[in-house]
Amino acid sequence: MSVVGVDFGYQSSVIAAAGRGGVDVILNGGSNRLNPSMVGFDECRRVGEQATSGQSSNLKNTIKGMKRLVGLAFDDPRAQKEMKWYPGVTFAPFERSSGGTPSIGVKIHAGDSEKETVVPIEMVAGMMLRHMGDIAAAKAAEGTSTPASELFPQDWVVAIPNYFTDAQRRGLQAGCEIVGIKGVLRFMHENTATALSYGIFKDLKKEFDAEKPTNVMFIDMGASAYTVSIATFIPGQLIVKSAQCDSELGGRDFDMAVATWIASGFEQKFGSKLSGKPLDKPKTYLKILAAAEAAKKTLSPVGVKEARINLEMLMDDFDFSTSLKVEEYEAICQPLLDRLAGPIQKALEEAKLTSADLTAVEIVGGSTRIGCVKRKLLEILNIENLSTTMNADESVARGAALQSAILSPRFKVLPYDIQEAQPFPIKISWEGGDEDTSSVTMFNRGLTFPIVRRVTLKRGGPFSVKASYEDVEQYGLPAAAEEIATINIDNPTTADNKVRVNIKQDIHGILVISSAQMVEEIEDPEAEQPAAGGEAAADAPAEDGEGEKKKKIKKTNLTCSISRPLDWSADEINKYYEIEVAMANADRIVIETSNMRNELESYIYGMRDKISSDSQLGLFGTPEEKAAFAEKRDAMENWLYEDGFDATKKVYAEKLAELKALGDPIEKRQAESQERPGVVSSLQSSLESYTAWVNESQANEKYEHVTDEEREKVRSKCDEISAWMYEKLDQQAGMSLDEDPVLTVHSIRMKHKELADVCSPVINKPKPKPKPKEEPQKETPPTPEPSEDGKKEEEVPMEGVETEEKTEEKMQTD
């Protein structure tokens, strides 16, 4: 599971792994596919499901939905609005050592320290992603002897919202680096991952036609955002035509609408008896929000008319019960439903399509299960059915895993072209020179990336180029988010140098400086060399134009640097990486200590009944041993809940060893008593088998190759082992159960092995192979000696034959 894709969601996250058999969503330790996107800080960090279980008791130190805060400035209006969704959590400006605009930090109490620590939100996001990797590693390690730490995923694709800005992408990238995730191959838009998951397998089945492209609309409503995208499919290619978002419309907004209705009813009922507003109290807020979500889910299926809401001890010891009818629910949510049409209409206009041009409308995301949302979508698109062929919760993670497999060198995947779409237009502006200022839109909205664009300027001396988003208000971005980067170029102070600045938008959608070059036209020295022919050539009259000097282009790389708001330096990443390592070690120690304490506690309680019961260990210990164990056990139990409550792992291990030194001999006697009959029976069976073979093999032709000495060797060993066994059995029969046995299971097994080592080679001795028959030699008649003339006559043709053979070889060689 070294190649994975992650859907890093607001409410929950999903991880999928690419393998030879396809893509599989990985289950966590609780056999669940969805992992709550939540990190809690206590004596150790608790992530995912563990954080959920302790949220109500550790509200101030439990952070969720961190992806919507990553890469934002603390005073960004989007951040200030988002922080209101997390009651009880204390946010603070996070100051970087390099200065600049503060980003978002969270005040926490970590470990045993009572001092508040500010942790950057990017690091918290990284912790959640690291937890997803740990889930994959643990799954990969199942059934193997390899530690899970050695099977941590190597290649990642992380799905992000389409509306993420450059700063948000860089923030998430820094979070991954802080927690040691180095192999992020791509940050992929969630809508593109969904489209890839939909299209790649259909492409393999040859369902797309190059002459007639397939247009599919994907509607994704999750917990916090609503995205509508249109993708076009042709064989071997996916093209994102349009993607429109409402980043403030999701399932949580429907929950909040119902929660506000519940709180209003509660206030009307109890009025002045309440100590404050219900939604202003963090724990009450969470209770009401959970009840609202449950009511939403109850009313989503067709045919459900109302949902009962019962809240015990909601606030100030007051209970509250009410019913929400489906008509009231839809009226409450009508303002939210009205916002569904805008992104759909914009997406169709941008793609230059109508709903009739769509082959299918696929809905994904947990909030598309809301009944009134489905009905509203059908009404807006004027279609009969919405397609639900994809898993609403897993499609993004599956698409990300497929992209990871395509990009990873560990897999060989058929080429598949994915044309991603740039969400915001980016302009490049410059100033300097003769007091001129200008700009150009270099990366248009919808432009595919990664891509490199170039701007050529004439400048004398150092100058800067700025990249910023264009028309930010049109795309719902605050003015503070307009700036992307400033590129400073160290240009020589000569007049009007021609400088080419190459700016790249990489595979993550992050803007980087590719290169800056000074371009000069210089005289070509080779063109000034005299022509061949010397003076005669020089005396020849020149043709028109020959007197002009030739020039060539010289390119000189210039030093350039890039500064970006909310950027993370390498030193800062390394600093927080060390903090992360320290936290991980502290977590490991806490977990190992807790496990050792639980082991000691389990042993104390487990042995209490066993050692006093005659049906278990009672018969295998002497009265003195049982009394000593009971005394030690009771003292250990008192220590565990008093002075030893906060002891270290080493102390717990030592205490457990002390107790086991008294209990292990008793347990060993029981184990010996239970296992001894079986191993004795096995040895007896072997003795009988070998003895029977000795008696039968003498008259069996099959064993005629076995000598009498070898048979006697087997018989003698059987008699020896048999005598030893019965002697020890007699001794053991005269002993009580609370004595250490003289006939141990180990000794029986060793004797069994000794018997097999002697007898098996004799019994399995192979027959010798029969000797091959010798053929009688034929007598060769003597050769008469030829006369001298005869010899000469024979020599001539022999030489001729040799000559012919040599000639033939030469011919073959040629």
Query: Which runs of at least 5 residues are low in confidence (pLDDT < 50)?
Result: 531-545, 787-814
**Fourth-level CATH superfamily of the largest domain:** ATPase, nucleotide binding domain
Helical percentage: 40-55%
Major beta-sheet overview: 6 strands, mixed
Number of strands: 28
At the fold tier of CATH, the topology name of the largest domain is: Nucleotidyltransferase, domain 5
| Amino-to-carboxy terminus distance | 60 Å
Reported CATH architecture of the largest domain:
2-Layer Sandwich
- Pairing-aware structural class of the strands and helices? alpha+beta
Computed over alpha carbons, the radius of gyration is 41 Å
Number of helices: 18
Estimated share of beta-strand residues: 15-25%
| Number of structural units classed as domains | 4
Shape: extended
What is the topology?
Elements: E1 3-7, E2 12-19, E3 22-25, E4 35-36, E5 38-41, E6 45-47, H1 49-53, E7 62-64, H2 77-83, E8 91-94, E9 103-108, E10 117-120, H3 121-141, E11 155-160, H4 166-178, E12 184-189, H5 190-204, E13 214-221, E14 226-234, E15 237-246, H6 251-270, H7 282-299, E16 306-315, E17 318-325, H8 326-338, H9 341-351, E18 360-364, H10 371-381, H11 395-407, E19 417-419, E20 426-432, E21 436-443, E22 451-459, E23 463-469, E24 483-489, E25 497-505, E26 511-523, H12 534-539, E27 551-557, E28 560-563, H13 570-610, H14 623-640, H15 649-697, H16 708-733, H17 745-763, H18 788-813
Parallel strand pairs: 1-11, 11-12, 13-18, 15-19
Antiparallel strand pairs: 1-2, 2-3, 2-4, 5-6, 5-7, 8-9, 9-10, 13-14, 14-15, 16-17, 20-21, 20-23, 22-25, 23-24, 24-28, 25-26, 26-27
